[in-house]
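Researcher: Re-running this chain for the archive, since the previous output was lost when a drive failed. Same request as before.
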Amino acid sequence: MARPLINIPKRVKRGDAFEIRVLISHPMESGQRRDEVGKVVPRDIINSFFCTYGGEEVFRAELFPAISANPYFAFSARAVETGLITLSWTDDQGVSGFETVEITVE
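Model: Regenerated structure tokens:
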């Protein structure tokens, strides 16, 4: 399963924009390479990534084979209320992952 490195502030002032940064450790095999014996290495990429804040979607990405290994996402959201930020992703093998981070709005 992919391992994420997440950087989200724990506390933010109400109305302020804050940055969400996520690095997901995943090999991202494009399906275009061949192994030592000439057999095609099956495609295995993270094909979707979602972020919700307080139950509302704030970011979505659909990924394709040209993406590099260990994809990095950086985007902003506006602090509205204290709540959970949920990050989720799925790869071509059907493996899903998610992490939640609580943010406090002051």
